[in-house]
Write a structure and sequence with these properties.
By secondary structure, this protein is of the alpha/beta class. 39% of the residues lie in helices and 27% in strands. The chain binds adenosine-5'-triphosphate. The site of adenosine-5'-triphosphate has 13 residues, from strand 2 and helix 1.
Length: 240
C-alpha cells in the first residue's frame, strides 16, 4: 500500500431532481487500500459509487482518478481503470458464464489477453470454471456475485468498486466472498472501494472507512478505530 492517492473526491454534490442526495462529499483512496463506505438505507452509498463510475452526473465538485478528472461516461471510467459491481449484481441472466465474462473484457481485442483474463478469473473462482457454459440466471446467488465480480475483473480495473456484495447471501457464502475480495486486493494489487450495510464484515477487511449519513460524511477513520467507535457500534453494528 502507498500514500499515493488513486482517487480523490472533492466537494461533491449530487441531486436527483429536487432531492439532494450527496452533500459536499470529500474522500480519498490510497493506491492498494481497501476502503469501505458504511451507511443505512438511503444514505447515498450507491449514488456515490454510481457517480464515481460515471453513471450519475454530479452537480458540483471533482472526482479525480490518478489526479485527472473522471469523465461522466461509464465506459470512459472503465477505460481509465474504474469498475463497478452494482448492487443486485446485474449479470446477463440469459447468457452463459463465459459470455458474461467476455462482456467484461469489451475493451480488449487480443484473444490471447482475453484467454489470460479468463484463466485469472477461473483461478480465483474455480466454481465459475466448472460452470463455464451454464446460463447465468440458473446460478446460485453466491455464484452470481462471483460472476459479477469476475466480469468486472475482466476489464483489469485499478479500482474495483463493490456495492453491497453481501446482500442476500448466506453467512458462509459472505465469508467466502470477502476472502476473495482480500485475495483480489493482495494478489492482483487492485484497490477496493466497498459499500456495505453490514459494517462488521466490511470493517474487518478494510484499512479505512467513511460513515455516510443522509448524504453527508459524518465520520472518517481507520477501520480498527471505527470498529471500536461507540456511535458506529450502536448505529451500524447493533451493539449497545
Ligand atoms: P441502499 O442501501 O438502500 O441501496 P444507499 O445508501 O445506496 O441506499 P442511494 O440509493 O444512493 O442510497 O439513495 C440516496 C438517496 O437518493 C435516497 O434518498 C434515494 O431515495 C434517492 N435516490 C436514489 N436513486 C434515485 C432516483 N433514481 N431517483 C430519485 N431519487 C433517488
Amino acid at each position: 500500500m502507498s500514500d499515493k492517492r488513486i482517487l480523490e473526491v472533492k466537494n461533491l454534490e449530487v441531486y436527483y431532481g429536487g432531492i439532494h442526495a450527496l452533500h459536499d462529499i470529500n474522500m480519498h483512496i490510497n493506491q492498494g487500500e481497501i476502503v469501505t463506505i458504511i451507511g443505512a438505507n438511503g444514505a447515498g452509498k450507491s449514488t456515490l459509487l454510481n457517480t464515481i463510475a460515471g453513471d450519475k452526473e454530479k452537480k458540483h465538485g471533482n472526482i479525480l482518478f490518478e489526479e485527472i478528472d473522471v469523465p461522466e461516461k461509464s465506459y470512459k471510467a472503465v477505460e481509465r481503470g474504474i469498475c463497478l459491481v452494482p448492487e443486485g449484481r446485474r449479470i446477463f441472466v440469459n447468457l452463459t458464464v463465459k459470455e458474461n465474462l467476455r462482456i467484461g473484457a469489451f475493451l480488449e481485442k487480443k484473444s490471447s489477453t482475453i484467454n489470460r483474463l479468463y484463466d485469472e478469473v477461473f483461478e480465483l473462482f474455480p466454481r465459475l470454471k466448472e460452470r463455464t457454459n451454464q446460463i447465468g440466471g440458473t446460478l446460485s446467488g453466491g455464484e452470481q456475485q462471483m460472476l459479477a465480480v469476475g466480469r468486472a475483473l475482466m476489464a483489469r480495473p485499478k479500482l474495483l468498486m463493490l456495492d453491497e456484495p453481501s446482500l442476500g447471501l448466506a453467512p458462509i457464502v459472505i465469508d467466502e466472498m470477502f476472502e476473495k475480495i482480500v485475495q483480489i486486493n493482495r494478489e492482483l494489487g487492485t484497490t477496493i472501494l466497498l459499500v456495505e450495510q453490514n459494517a462488521f464484515i466490511a470493517l474487518d477487511i478494510a484499512n479505512r472507512g467513511y460513515i455516510l449519513n443522509v448524504g453527508k460524511v459524518t465520520i472518517e477513520d481507520n477501520a480498527s478505530d471505527l470498529m471500536e467507535n461507540p456511535i458506529v457500534q450502536e448505529a451500524y453494528m447493533g451493539i449497545k
